[in-house]
Design a protein that fits this description.
- By secondary structure, the chain is an alpha/beta fold.
- The protein has a single domain (4-198), classed as Rossmann fold (3-Layer(aba) Sandwich).
- The chain has five helices and 13 strands.
- It has helices spanning 27-34, 49-56, 77-93, 102-110, 188-198, and strands spanning 4-7, 10-14, 19-23, 38-41, 60-63, 97-100, 116-117, 122-130, 133-140, 143-144, 153-158, 163-168, 173-176.
- The strands form three sheets. Strands 4-1-5-6-13-12-11-8-9 form a nine-stranded mixed β-sheet, sandwiched between helices. A two-stranded antiparallel ribbon has the order 2-3. A two-stranded antiparallel sheet has the order 7-10.
- Helix 3 packs across helix 4 (102-110).
- The radius of gyration is 16 Å and the shape is globular.
- 38% of the residues are buried.
């Protein structure tokens, strides 16, 4: 039986209906299926998170993109709360985390790393390099980080000094500022990293 990976959803505010909706790009579950997992979305309802995670018993957590953090101009405080609580639960239960774009920013914020507004990182492709190798990746973010704190480690950096990927072996964390689900076709290196993180015996 395939293992389950849970993933977060962005918040869309629909004024005409006075609704705050959770949603996610369909490419996210497709990417997780390609990696060999059953993808299960979780709502931005922090009060039910621990019970849900206990019932689902996931082998991994994916923190996805969308919605800036509130402290950097975002309008979805419930998403900030959900990401922070999911990180806490993951660390307590030794559940591996992969974050991308906003998901990486949530991890950085959790470990008290400051973000700053940056330019030329939205809807472009650029080269990154580091311990994961030299790669050309997509980029869709307005905030970035140039210095991190332990226990996080820099994995990849862009030419302008913006940190594009991090990892933390102590807590089974990996994260990238690029979106693995937006590559067409999906990158084999992204698939291998996610698969190895969530299923380390492979």
């Amino acid at each position: 039986m395939k293992e389950i990976v849970i993933y977060t959803q962005r918040v869309e505010i629909v004024e005409s209906y006075q609704e705050r909706r959770d949603c996610a790009d369909q490419s996210i579950p497709r990417f997780l299926e390609t990696c060999g997992y059953i993808p299960v979305p979780v709502p931005n309802v922090v009060q039910k998170l621990e019970k849900m995670i206990s019932c689902i018993n996931p082998v991994g957590i994916m923190l996805t993109g969308g919605n800036s953090l509130v402290r950097y101009g975002g309008t979805a405080p419930e998403r900030d709360e959900t990401d922070r609580r999911m990180i806490e639960i993951a660390l307590n239960r030794s559940i591996p985390i992969y974050g991308f774009c906003r998901g990486m920013q949530s991890i950085l914020a959790y470990f008290d790393c400051e973000l700053e507004n940056i330019e030329d990182h939205v809807a472009v492709r650029h080269q990154v390099q580091g311990t994961w190798g030299i790669m050309e990746v997509n980029s869709y973010h307005n905030q970035g980080c140039k210095q991190i704190k332990k226990p996080l480690q820099i994995a990849e950096t862009a030419e302008d000094g913006v940190i594009e990927a991090i990892e933390c072996t102590q807590y089974k964390i990996m994260a990238s500022m690029w979106h693995p689900e937006r590559e067409n076709p999906y990158s084999n290196s992204d698939i291998q990293r996610v698969t190895k993180l969530f299923r380390p015996d492979n």
